[in-house]
Every structure is written in C-alpha cells, then in structure tokens.
Automatic annotation (TrEMBL):
The gene is ccsB. This is C-type cytochrome biogenesis protein CcsB. One of its GO terms (molecular function) is heme binding. It is found in: Membrane. PANTHER family: CYTOCHROME B_B6 PROTEIN-RELATED, HEME EXPORTER PROTEIN C. It comes from Nocardioides albidus. The keyword DNA damage does not apply. GO terms for biological process: cytochrome complex assembly. It is a multi-pass membrane protein.
Amino acid sequence: MSNTAWETLSNQAVATAGIVYFLALVVYLAEWAALRQPAADRELVGAGAGDAEPAGQAPEPATGAATPRGERVAFLGRLGLLLTVLGCAAHLVGLVGRGMAADPNRVPWGNMYEFTLTGTFVVALLYLVLYRRFGLGWMGPLVVGFVVATLMIAVIWLYGAVAPLTEALNSPWLVIHVISAIIATGAFTLGGIASIMYLVRMRAERRAEAAGRELSPWLARVPRLDALDRLAYRVHAFAFPVWTFAVLITGPIWAHEAWSRYWNWDPKEVWAFITWVVYAGYLHARATAGWKGRKAALLALVGLATLWFNFIGINYFSTTSQHSYAAERPEILRPAQVSGLSGG
C-alpha cells in the first residue's frame, strides 16, 4: 500500500471508531434508561417473585426467573461492551495506519492529533482490560463519552497531515517516554472518573437520605462509596510510578539528548512536574494522613485537571514551550519554533 492509501485507511478507521463508539454510548445510555422499571413491569415482577423491590432501587441478581427488564439490561450491557471492543479495534487500525503512512514508517506520535488519538485509545483499552477485574460495567457510558468527545476535538481542531518526525522527536526515547506517559494518562483518567463518581454518589446519597427516598436507578448501579474510593486509589497507585518513570527519568534523559540539558524550565516540563507533585501528595496523604473519601477525590481531580492541561493546553496554547510543535502542522511552524527544535 502507498503512504496515501495508509493515511486514507487511518482517517477512515478513526471515523469508523468514532461512529462505533457513539453507537456504544447510545446503547449504554439505553441500558441506563432500562433500569427505570415501568410500573406495569414492576407489578409483574411482584406478582411472580414476591415483594416488589423498592422504588428507584436497581434490581439485585435474580433469585428466580429473570425479569424482562433484567434480560433487556443485560443484553444492552453486552451489546455496549461489544461495540466498545469493535470501536477500540478500529481505533487501533487508525493508529497503525497513521504510522505506516509516514515515510519512513514511524510510531504515530508526531503531533498533537496523533498524541490525542493514542491517549484516547489507551483510555478505552485500559477500560476493557480492567472491565472484569474491577466490575467496570457502570463506567461504560462515561469512558465512551469521554473518548467520543476527545476524538471529535482531535479530528475537528487538531488534525494535521502525516509528516516525517521533527528532529527533536526522531529518537528512540520517543517510544519509551511517550508510551509510559500515555499509559499513565489513561490510568489517571480512569481514576479521575472513579473520583468524580464518588463525589456524585456521595452527594446523591445525602440528598436521598434527607428526602427519605432511594437513589436513582443508574446511581444505585454505581459501586458503593468505599468501593469507588478503593478503585480510585488502586488505579492512581498504578499510574503514579509509570508517570514518575515518564516525567523524572525518560523525559530528562531525552531532553539532554535533544537540547543538551536535563531541565529547561519548559512550560510542559514544569506542568508535568506539577502533576507529579499533586499525585504524590494524593498518595502520601492517603498513606500517612488517612485521607480518604471526599478529600482524596477532590485532590485527585486537581491532579486530573493539571494532567489534561499539560497534555493539551500547554501544547496548544503555549508560544514559548519547545513542545509546542506538537500542536501545529509541520508546514506552518513558526521560525522561532524551528530554531527551538534544533536546540538553538
């Protein structure tokens, strides 16, 4: 295949992934909607299985024959998961095609569009990998919604044609540094989603208790607060050493190779270190001060904000960062940026 054919395949695969992810989102939302059991269906359940479940409470696993609603919810959940797998597969094809379209062939991390494609792919892949281990079925619409929205931003505002790597990026450290940074970014994002849902469920529980009612069906399906807190902690504990490896080890080594200095006070370097400090504080506070629950969730969200600002904001808005080439098409780089890439 020619380079043009590979690039066309990549663009088509990314578009296909976006459509399939969107369909998965629709199915996941339909699954949530199916949790709102109609009154007539509730009466049938009560007639056939004894006492009806409390209003607004998600059904427990069937103790007798499966209800029509239970079967419908299970089917939609399986269909949403299947569509997510298919979307992730198309996403991978888009990434591979992007790298094969370059001459010479390279990893698909030459600009901000490609970084974003890879970052969203890792978020979706980690969700699928951890799906059964941590029972993440409830997280499906949140993860897929995030991936769809970010892919739209990438395609509409960040897209750039395939081009050879710039001098600063043409290094073996590109693979080591970017892989570790993107894996950590994907894991931190999943941990952030768990932290957000902790705060949402905590507030909903307080309101429901004050009003003397049950949680809404979709929130009742979300794990209990202690389970959400443990999930967020475990994911962050995995991501932090990976981020440390990317930011404090491979990043400075690559910077020294490219610019003859381990630390340049570049805005991206500074924000990456700020992100590291926030997450280090999160883990330290949990381990020594016993921070759990709301305080830990809020601190995790501060870390998530610094992470994604560093990932997109610095690259896209900074005019002084030596990493700002990643946000622009190579053919329209400003002269100052070109001299910056060469280490001048």
